# Entry
Amino acid sequence: MIVVMKPGASEEDIQHVVQLVQEYGLKENVIRGTDRTVIAAIGDKRSVDKGAIENAPMVEKVMPILAPYKMASTEVKKERSQIKIGPKQFPVGGRKIAMIAGPCAVENEDQIFRIAEAVRQAGGIGLRGGAYKPRTSPYSFQGLQEEGLKLLAEARKRTDLAIVTEVISVETVDQVCEYTDVLQIGARNMQHYALLEAVGKADKPVLLKRGLSSTLDEWLLAAEYIINAGNPNVILCERGIRTYEDYVRNTLPLAAVPALQARTHLPVLVDPSHGTGHAYLVPPMCRAAIAAGADGLIVECHNDPEHALSDGAQSITPQALLTLMGKLKRIAEAIGKEA
Amino acid sequence: MIVVMKPGASEEDIQHVVQLVQEYGLKENVIRGTDRTVIAAIGDKRSVDKGAIENAPMVEKVMPILAPYKMASTEVKKERSQIKIGPKQFPVGGRKIAMIAGPCAVENEDQIFRIAEAVRQAGGIGLRGGAYKPRTSPYSFQGLQEEGLKLLAEARKRTDLAIVTEVISVETVDQVCEYTDVLQIGARNMQHYALLEAVGKADKPVLLKRGLSSTLDEWLLAAEYIINAGNPNVILCERGIRTYEDYVRNTLPLAAVPALQARTHLPVLVDPSHGTGHAYLVPPMCRAAIAAGADGLIVECHNDPEHALSDGAQSITPQALLTLMGKLKRIAEAIGKEA
Amino acid sequence: MIVVMKPGASEEDIQHVVQLVQEYGLKENVIRGTDRTVIAAIGDKRSVDKGAIENAPMVEKVMPILAPYKMASTEVKKERSQIKIGPKQFPVGGRKIAMIAGPCAVENEDQIFRIAEAVRQAGGIGLRGGAYKPRTSPYSFQGLQEEGLKLLAEARKRTDLAIVTEVISVETVDQVCEYTDVLQIGARNMQHYALLEAVGKADKPVLLKRGLSSTLDEWLLAAEYIINAGNPNVILCERGIRTYEDYVRNTLPLAAVPALQARTHLPVLVDPSHGTGHAYLVPPMCRAAIAAGADGLIVECHNDPEHALSDGAQSITPQALLTLMGKLKRIAEAIGKEA
Amino acid sequence: MIVVMKPGASEEDIQHVVQLVQEYGLKENVIRGTDRTVIAAIGDKRSVDKGAIENAPMVEKVMPILAPYKMASTEVKKERSQIKIGPKQFPVGGRKIAMIAGPCAVENEDQIFRIAEAVRQAGGIGLRGGAYKPRTSPYSFQGLQEEGLKLLAEARKRTDLAIVTEVISVETVDQVCEYTDVLQIGARNMQHYALLEAVGKADKPVLLKRGLSSTLDEWLLAAEYIINAGNPNVILCERGIRTYEDYVRNTLPLAAVPALQARTHLPVLVDPSHGTGHAYLVPPMCRAAIAAGADGLIVECHNDPEHALSDGAQSITPQALLTLMGKLKRIAEAIGKEA
# Structure
């Protein structure tokens, strides 16, 4: 932590901050410049609220230096994590690109089996589909719930795809674990800490979506909650952030992929469906994500998007998925990977 | 809903959309302009995912017309809601400004009693204080939990202030109800729907903070979840949004106050502590919020901000609170209210 | 400047940075922590591009410490600036609130004289009105140009109001100076440096609007360009920033007012018309701006907003202005000022 | 334009809006729904300020339907534009990817010739380099000006690369035209309309960067200014937008590439240097941009980034450029293009 004093700070002001720094268990280092004095506070105490020092007289600002997460960090674990998912134990985070696709919501048997088969044929390794749906409006379709989970489990039996589905409450973690392979934490729940701790105690890998406007630090701290609770198998998923842009549902910042890879050993997927909100933007952004180095994709795919019960606008068809996969394969190869 | 067709859409394309509109239970109204055709779809069906129509051939965009919430809306209830809180049943939402103040977290008996007394003396009507703390880092102080709730209840007994505290999980709703007067839903939980439904079944008023980057529609839909579950006593609290601005923790958009008052009958408070993140900005933004027409304030106040266990940087002292209240009183009077 | 090294940086890496720091004319101060080494570089060299050091091996990040502006800063000039404008030499920046109002664009004689008279009667001290209009679309009304300036000068003769009008090109600075009292630099031109230098050589005060998404540093550096070119009479004007919010044209961050007052001695006005974009939000945000401590307001006012040639949606009527002024007077008094 | 009336609007209110719509030269179409009345106003009048109608009694909102630009639009010109640049008349906008690279600023003969040669060897088709530099601080290096232009012209003679350089004032347009091949309009000047009109009268292609926080509509309207002034040869360049993200200088929204291609026939380049601000993020985002379908790239490249006079942090080395080009070639092929 660097404490910058205001110009004109007296020796007494400086010593007051030195004392505060020491009270926080840190070692001070006073640097007297031409214009102002800076106090560097050394020591690894991530748990204290150092911002409080800002209240001391003549303090201008307090700047943290250390990343606030540990176990998710490349400082602690240098080799990249590989996380195996589904009946075939597909390794997410290796040379091979992971394509997970499926509808926003499980709607009925015919729909989910038809799409699952299409995903398998396209070379996907996972099937996504919501059984419990967090919906912005209480009047929207809330998902088939356990019935949906059963359909997903049946789809797995038919296709060997890994089942990825969202869990939205502590109470249903066990139930969702029973039927599926990967527990998805949605953007709205990224800082729902009780849920993070609950999936941290589960024995299934977790797909942790980025919160709507979260920073990388906040996101990696959410991963840290899960790892800290006992589950090291966290897959990050960039799904776009909220900005002023109005031609997209969210702005998809793909630089997050290499930026995360410099900070964490966890695998990073990208969700261009939520990341753009419009079907015509999904294939180009899937290609871009793979080119940027993402470990895989999660894509909304529906056999009849015009009648989808949710997220129809951003779902691509099985045919579009198939065409896309051919291009992704070549892009992956261009950067030394496979699809 | 307005469906805008692309230029060059054929009659067949138009009829296809007309049919979709009818399938959704809406009545179409086709308007043929010089450049393009527009289809207005009439009827109140808030639950369907109309975006799906965007997938139909030659559709350029789909624009909603109706606000998606009902019970929170001034369309349904024209007179402004007054919500009574605490032992004195102070009416939030009337002529009198509600000042709620207190520390970020309950730390110990001496701290909370001392601050409660200062809040009472300054003319506050509520005491805020966290017992269950949602913290960005798993390594930060997580609150005194039930012990903290007991201290808050004791502070109420001594001061008659209404106790406002955050509830962060479905499991603890009953416990928090037992000790306190107002259930706060924090920004991170604004779209934690299971929790919204749980407090919707509780018999205490709810203080619903705006999510970090939520729109007014999303926020009012969160209120709608609570009202829809049976609890009409929702108080909204603007606490700032995330933007690129770096001299504040959040950007506090006070225009939200009159904009909300045009859309909803629910009372609106403002939290300038989280809304700015720095103690020196809190008094001016408190004054501005009242001048903009807010029904009250919720402010972090700590007797020793330099040593606060959380949010020290944004806490004002009891003395600053007292001085502020004098000014707020005069500003309230300037716009025909009282403090 | 603080250079943070990556964990694992070797002594050679550190010495390489030390050498770079010295080449930049700064003095290094090496601080060896438990996890990583930090190099504080001391000395006031604001002109070099220190970010380049980020390219040195094993550098994690480079954090600046000093504000990049000087003459606009409270460090250099502690007493607040008062800038006198118009025939009556009204002091902007003192105890008395400055109200500047008028139409977006000068449209014709009748319109501008009628509005000028209304502004005078309401107690305004300045008349705003665009003669040269920077318009987003080449097909929009571009202003009456010199003819508009003449009408503004005539309105001044009739009312003694200070004339505030935008200047959009270096070529027209002299002409605009001839007819008016305050040169407005619009948000789009905040970083049009040739124009900043041109008004820096003019002998009229400058009203410098904040750029659409500028930081406080960028804004104060734009002021620094003007002061550095020879004109110390710069009035800042907050007019809202672009965010994801969709119920407003811009988000008006009033915390900028006290935040600026802590950083600069220049007066700060607020423009709630552009800052919200809707007439119904203008009066509450005017009140809030004054309560937050702004030195004055600039407001769009039109006698027939439904037919205004530009910005009709955000213009208030003369009657609304009059009512507003009564409230502003009382709010100003509440915080020890006058209106 | 769609005018949405508030619930409870009377027939008189509706007729008042009908009359306004007619006054604006549009044809009304009144649609009476269950909850509210909507008035669709038909006719192509892009120049009027329809927002003014928002002031009429009982109007809730006004929603535009038509894109505000014409000549830049795919509605007016369906085939994609190809714009030929430099001594070799390289076609930007075709199957072949355009790589333009070079330093932020021309610093001296040795630097620019060395980098130009490296760009040529890597397969670039253009050399970028600033002679007139718009700098945020008046104390920063402002460029070599005409001397820099001469060095660029000499570098062209040696390499046959197209010279791309920024023009920052109306006065220097002719001079810049004399020495270079493509006139760059920087992000800060995207709405500097006098400059847009000046380059619109020049006989060189224009590279128009996206403004810092501009929408696609604003950007395409800036292009429209140039085309409208007589110069159809506009190349768009996405360079990132300002968001809350702090690990990048800007957030680079690559979905803008396909979104623009659906709206305009103009070629689209991407600038990952300004779009990220950090050298380590530049190669992955170059790859992503090409995979998303961009027509080319503009990249900062410096032989000694640690000592660059500006933008050192985001400049890649000639060696990194060479390696990158090999990968870009394969990615281009994967999507049916060439590099």
Notes: The two ends of chain A are 44 Å apart (CA to CA).
